[in-house]
Amino acid sequence: MRHRKRGRKLGRTTSHRTALFRNQATALFEHEQIRTTLPKCKELRRVAEKLITLAKRGDLTARRQAAKMIHKHAILRKLFDDIGPRYQDRSGGYTRIIRGELRRGDGAQMGYIQLV
Q: Mind telling me which GO cellular component terms the entry cites (predicted)?
């Protein structure tokens, strides 16, 4: 039974899944909107919202914790200097997921995740 087991495995090992979300979070903060499959969007939302909450705090400890996930220094700077202060008066719900079309190759449900 899967009681209290959170998150989707997405058919990947733990290290592969972690690397996937690192790359997708970096791309989301760089472009502020990305297109991927709907289950990946829903899982990426959890990661991205926690990183934006760290950016709202803005102290050195939060920056170091966020640097574990965001390896590009320019994107980390953008997260803490631009994106974090933008949501200072908002108490959650920093991302929006929009359902897209079905992917032509395998019929997977696509989605767009964007910063509000």
A: cytosolic large ribosomal subunit
CA 63 → CA 30, 34, 51, distances in Å?
17, 23, 9
pLDDT tens profile 1-25:
989 999 999 999 999 999 999 999 9
Q: Specify the amino acid at residue 19.
A: A
CA 37/CA 84 separation, integer angstroms:
26
pLDDT of residue 62: 97
Q: Are 30 and 52 in contact (CB under 8 A)?
A: no
Read off the amino acid at residue 51.
Answer: L
* 7 CB-near residues (< 8 Å, 6+ apart): 43, 46
Cα–Cα distance, 76 to 67 (Å, whole number): 7
Locate 106 and state its tokens: 């395998």
